[in-house]
Design brief:
Structural class: alpha/beta
Oligomer: single chain
Strand order of the largest sheet: 3-2-1-4-5
CATH superfamily: YqgF/RNase H-like domain
Order of helices and strands: EEEHEHEHH
Domain YqgF/RNase H-like: 1-103
Organism: Halalkalibacter alkalisediminis
Radius of gyration: 14 Å
Strand content: 25-35%
Function: Could be a nuclease involved in processing of the 5'-end of pre-16S rRNA.
CATH architecture: 2-Layer Sandwich
Main location: cytoplasm
Family: Belongs to the YqgF HJR family.
CATH class: Alpha Beta
Length: 139
């Protein structure tokens, strides 16, 4: 079975999918959020879960540097709670502190243009969230 990693933002959701053995995370896509109809977001994720045999969803939990959960973290938790009404798989929250910063640095070091970075940053952050979870689970 596979795991799906999500980097949930206010405008987009970056997505990554594990291989069938649960060893590696690959970028999947970036979902542009439907502000007027949030149900579309959850239906789109549900379709990906069903199409790929996903049994675990790992959602990035943005914590403050002191470990507390702020507004962004609360939004991610609310997203997870709502998503659980659409899917029957396990949903895990994963500390995502600095994943977007690390993804940005990785893309800069790979000499990816600013325009292209903007297009893939959320997907790359989802890969880092999911890979962190997979590595932790494997140890």
């Amino acid at each position: 079975m596979r795991a799906l990693g999500l980097d949930v933002g206010t405008k987009t959701v970056g997505m990554a999918l594990s291989d069938e053995l649960g060893w590696t995370a690959q970028g999947l896509s970036t979902l542009r959020r439907a502000e007027e109809n949030p149900e579309k977001d959850f239906e789109a994720i549900k379709a990906i879960v069903e199409e790929n045999g996903v049994d675990t969803i790992v959602i990035g939990l943005p914590k403050n540097m002191n470990g507390s959960i702020g507004t962004s973290g609360e939004r991610s938790q609310l997203f997870a709670d709502t998503l659980s009404e659409y899917v029957s798989c396990t949903i895990k929250m994963w500390d995502e502190r600095l994943t977007t910063v690390a993804a940005e640095r990785m893309l800069i070091s790979a000499d990816v243009s600013r325009k292209k970075r903007k297009q893939v940053i959320d997907k790359m952050a989802a890969v880092m969230i999911l890979q962190g979870y997979l590595d932790h689970k494997g140890n």
